[in-house]
Amino acid sequence: MKLEFSGGVLTAFIDGEIDHHTAPSIRETIDKTILQDKPDVLRLDYSGVTFMDSSGIGLIMGRYKLISSCSGKIEVINIPRNMAKVVKLSGIERLGRITIKED
């Protein structure tokens, strides 16, 4: 995962799999940066995600709660099409801007 902070926007470019093994380290890194930099927007870029179980949804929900407590907003962008249905069913669209990756 790569983090980029510019203009009040913290973007997390997430690569590979998000599961119960990888989610904790991703979560810790993002949370530490949110608390340190206090971004206006947290943008989670899922374009590099190849697999996601419920930990991927949990990652979004938990970061939403944290960024909201800092008066920020969340965006989840470039969700791969094969994962979009799960994201939509979870109700995450109510939390912030969600975009599906164009093929």
Uncertain runs? none
Terminal Cα separation, in Å?
22 Å
The number of strands is 5
The spatial strand order of the largest sheet comes to 1-2-3-4-5
* Total number of distinct structural domains: 1
Number of separate helices:
3
CATH topology: Transcription Regulator spoIIAA
CATH architecture: 2-Layer Sandwich
Largest sheet: 5 strands, mixed
Briefly, what CATH class? Alpha Beta
Provide the helix percentage: 25-40%
CATH superfamily: STAS domain
Radius of gyration: 12 Å
Mean pLDDT: 94
Helical/strand content category? alpha/beta
Using the alpha-carbon principal axes, give the shape. globular
Query: What is the string of helix and strand elements?
Result: EEHEHEHE
Strand content: 35-45%
Describe this structure in words.
By secondary structure, this protein is of the alpha/beta class. It has a single domain (22-100), classed as STAS domain (Transcription Regulator spoIIAA). Helices cover 39% and strands 37% of the residues. Helix 1 packs parallel to helix 2 (54-69). The chain is globular, with a radius of gyration of 12 Å. The chain starts with a strand and ends with a strand.
